[in-house]
Amino acid sequence: MASAFKVRAASRKAAKARVLLTSPSGGGKTYGALLLAAGMGCTNIVLIDTEHSSADKYEGAPGIPPFQVIDFDPDYTPERYCEAIAAAEASGADCIIIDSTSHEWDGRGGCLELNEELARAKYRGNTWSAWAETTPRHRKFVERILSSRAHIIATARSKTETAQVDDGGRKKVVKLGMKAIARDGLEFEFDVVLDIVHDGHFAVPSKDRTQVFCGDPKPITVETGRRLAEWLAGDAALVARVRQFIGAATDTTTVQRAQARVAELESSGQLAAEVAASLRAEAQAKADALGAPA
After folding, report:
1. Do 182 and 276 belong to one domain?
2. Domain check: are 251 and 183 in the same one?
3. Are residues 77 and 118 in the same domain?
4. 10-residue averages of pLDDT along the chain (294 residues)
5. Are 271 and 265 a contacting pair, CB within 8 Å?
6. Is 259 domain-assigned?
7. Which of 58, 70, 220, 279 is the most exposed place for a label (fewest CB within 10 A)?
8. Cα(223)–Cα(230) distance, rounded to whole angstroms?
């Protein structure tokens, strides 16, 4: 009997950004999200603002492109988040910034509050049983993010996570690091999760499928967004741009720059080895045509 499943070669295709930025209040999440959107070349940025119109303060700031805002007041139900995303899409947004997702979990009308109300109304105070209704509502919010035709950059507040441990018979509270105010597992749904350190606004990747953020932590800049856009373009679009750059070269210095860029893209995993080899051969042929080795 023929199997319904087929095996195919892996091929990275063009994709939409799914990025989560976390930090305590004042860590630079909103500014970082806007810089990423600018670097990605987005021309219709819509920011869903649950933070009392705080995003307006960044209008006209250095490196920040024009953007539109959806003021999002309580209640912060999953359904209203989905409605806000739909409104942003209807406006033609190519990038939607959700600032922040924490309210969907821990805000007024968010999942924690909804679950408490359901438990009291239908389950005799049993919050565990109430999650059977609350979880699907949260899941629809997550699925709405994943299915959007726009880039999604979400933010989440974080707080210090602590635990009580036994220290030679005495109880002691120890810090375990920072934890996003969101349902456990939300970070699994994103391709990139950056924890922004308050001091210096350094972005520390806790998850990075792109390898754009490998190496020493750095603050988010417009250039960070450009590199992310290259990865999102997928092999075909990236190869086309490099090939166009090589073809348009009028001197060997430009060809050498193309060679260096190919090497960088290959080492970061954005170009497969065989694709990089092909582009190097094209660059060498171009250099030969220009009369000097690359």
Report:
1. no
2. no
3. yes
4. 83 85 90 95 96 92 94 97 98 96 96 97 96 97 96 92 75 72 93 88 90 86 89 78 89 90 82 80 90 59
5. yes
6. yes
7. 58
8. 11
